[in-house]
Amino acid sequence: MAVDILPVAHDARRPAWKRIGTMREAGLIAIILSLCVIMSFASPHFLTLGNFRAMLMSFSVEGIVVVGMTILLIVGGIDLSVGSVVCFSMVLSGSLFLMGVDPWTASLVGIAASAAIGCIMGFFVTVVGLNHFITSLAAMVIVRGLCLVITKGTPLSLFTLPPAFKAVGQGTFFGVPYVIVIFIAVVAVFDFLLRRATAFRKVFYTGSNEKAALYSGIKTKDVKFWVTVLCTTLSGVAGTIYMARFGAATPTFGVGMELNIIAAAVIGGASLNGGSGTILGAILGIALLSVVTSSLILLDVSVYWQDMIKGCILLAAVSIDHMLHKRKAA
């Protein structure tokens, strides 16, 4: 039985550039390029350095969260709490800083607390036996409540953050924003691990056929637990970067972020049924959503219509994923 799931992991181990011509990523690249060409005629402000920089900065931080979500979807889980955890990391770190704690230490505490949330969620999934959807839904509400409790519903002004810390979110490295450098590093590391590391191949095995993986000697509960922790930890990292970038922590930040994150991962090929997905595809998915959002803003489309359009894109992506799985099962 274990043999049936080996091709998935084997395909994931192939370098991204070898998969571009034959997989979903090629279609996403074509769509993104087509949108860019269309928008270059529709708006004179689209093909500008400032607009592209804004898009890169926007999806780079969300892209860090997408990496964690993609790996969690591959194992067969989902996390609806990522937006709340990003906010919680910001709020907790910001509050500690205002209490006199060094911002670097405060950030580490925020990331560790985010990982702890993942541990609690992982416990309820693997020990109690709840599914990821219900567990993360509850966590989303609870963690958002914690954000409001910590701040008392008032945004935290963190303009006194030291320049060295602000540089993480606002500075550049040879002209390239640190945010983008961190994003590229995270993507490169986890793309490599997902393709080459034995521990991460178990993620595919578990998501493809959990019973077969269990019979093969894989501790599937451990895999699901640590992937859940990884997702919330990366969300915590994104939260501290946002704090450095904006110099503030708002208790309502990240509301609805899970929609973008899940949509990007699914558009990029990650299956809601588990067992498939790539980091490259997910990043192209978040890039596509970023281009769409930028285009709608430049075309002066109402923010209410923007949310509806993103929802339709997510519905289309999930429908395509469902039909592909039905075709494979037939």
TrEMBL record:
It is a multi-pass membrane protein. GO terms for molecular function: hydrolase activity; transmembrane transporter activity. It is an enzyme of class 3 (hydrolase). GO terms for cellular component: plasma membrane. InterPro entries: ABC_transp_permease (IPR001851). This is Monosaccharide-transporting ATPase. Pfam families: BPD_transp_2. Keywords: Cell membrane, Hydrolase, Membrane, Plasmid, Transmembrane, Transmembrane helix. It comes from Sinorhizobium medicae (strain WSM419). The chain crosses the membrane at residues 26-46, 52-75, 82-101, 107-130, 137-161, 173-194, 225-244, 279-298. It is found in: Cell membrane. PANTHER family: ABC TRANSPORTER PERMEASE PROTEIN YPHD-RELATED-RELATED. Its EC number is 3.6.3.17. Signal peptide: none annotated.
